[in-house]
Amino acid sequence: MSWTGNPGSSKITLGLILRLSPLMLPFVVLFCGGVFLTVCQSLGIFTPLRHTGGLVDAYAVILSDPSFFASAGFSFGVALASAAGSVTAATFLAYRVWQLPNALAGAALVYKIPLILPHIAVAFVVLIFWSQSGILSSLAWHLGLIQSMPDFPNVLYSGWGLGMILAYTLKGTPFAMLLILALLVRFDVRQIQTAAMLGASKRRIFFSIVLPRLAPAMHTSFIILFLYSFGAFDIPYILSESRPGMLSLHVFDLYFKHDLARRPEAMAILTLMFCFAVLFIIAYSRTVTHLETGVRKL
């Protein structure tokens, strides 16, 4: 049995690749090239100094260091709390904005303001408001609620990463709202009207009719916000704790503040973070698909 390929399909594929090459070339060179170099340097290849150890020595050092696991757990907790908080707040706020009359729809666009601010600017906003010498502390002192500014709760550097969670939530909520509102705009309001006429409460309508329709945007925004918070550097540089600290700061410290001989350790952490991100996306997507399939079977 012989098979003859279709020359026309090969020409179409080649033409498609050529048309997409302006978009693919930066991706291949910058992203794929960066990942390749990171993995190589984590193995001691292409490093600034000659690597005399084994290929996995950097990984052995990192995985035997308790501070790495402490930083990883801390980063995971901050990313999980901020992403979950952003998506939860965005879902309820987007639903309320969608229900507003047309006369107030323009004013509701104020929620997009944090989108135009850089992450580091949002970090400074949180710092100005929530630090022990910030606006809220000064207001509490003027109102006689505290005797001195140091009496104000140490929200930002309490050891729980609350400052970073506040900043990421402030920045991530409007982003998630954009995705959720894009689905709500296409939502058929007659479903809600029919359910209301049949006696369904507002709570039942939201959780049984509206929320399942918003699930795709919620899952997408959660994955994006979680992975960004897990590996970002800008906000942790301003608001992170010194111990255990975020993984991004650990990498920065190894890369810029230590001897070049420790470059493979920094790259090993980056490689592990990348592998975790890929595995997280796969596991999360499969879990969501399994849960949704189970609900449909019911």
Task: Explain what you see.
This protein is mostly helical and 298 residues long. The chain has a domain at 67-117 and 161-297: MetI-like fold, CATH 1.10.3720.10. Helices cover 73% and strands 0% of the residues. It has 13 helices and no strands. α2 packs across α13 (263-297), α3 (66-99) runs antiparallel to α10 and α8 (162-185) crosses α10 (202-231). It is globular and about 75 Å long.
Walk me through the topology.
Layout: H1 7-42, H2 57-63, H3 66-99, H4 102-105, H5 113-116, H6 119-130, H7 135-142, H8 162-185, H9 189-197, H10 202-231, H11 234-239, H12 247-256, H13 263-297
Helix pairs in contact: 1-13, 2-13, 3-8, 3-10, 6-8, 8-10, 9-10, 10-13, 12-13
Summarize the structure.
With 298 residues, the chain is mainly α. It has 13 helices and no strands. The protein has a domain of 188 residues: Orthogonal Bundle (MetI-like fold).
